[in-house]
């Protein structure tokens, strides 16, 4: 894989992890937070 693709994947994974933390801050959005965390881990 190209270095640019790998770098972009890591940036997207980092954004998903940040969204995961934001989603886990409230009970109403915790399910979405977990989903973002799982997606970020799958990409990383």
Automatic annotation (TrEMBL):
Residues that span the membrane, as ranges: 6-24
Record's keyword terms, sorted: Membrane, NAD, Oxidoreductase, Transmembrane, Transmembrane helix
Any one GO molecular function term: oxidoreductase activity
Presence of the UniProt keyword NAD in the record: yes
Residue ranges the record marks as coiled coil: none
Pfam families on file: PNTB (PF02233)
Enzyme class: oxidoreductase
EC nos: 1.6.1.2
Domain NADP transhydrogenase beta-like: 7-44
Protein name per Swiss-Prot or TrEMBL: Pyridine nucleotide transhydrogenase
Organism: Advenella kashmirensis (strain DSM 17095 / LMG 22695 / WT001) (Tetrathiobacter kashmirensis)
Phylogenetic classification of the source organism: Bacteria, Pseudomonadati, Pseudomonadota, Betaproteobacteria, Burkholderiales
Gene: pntB
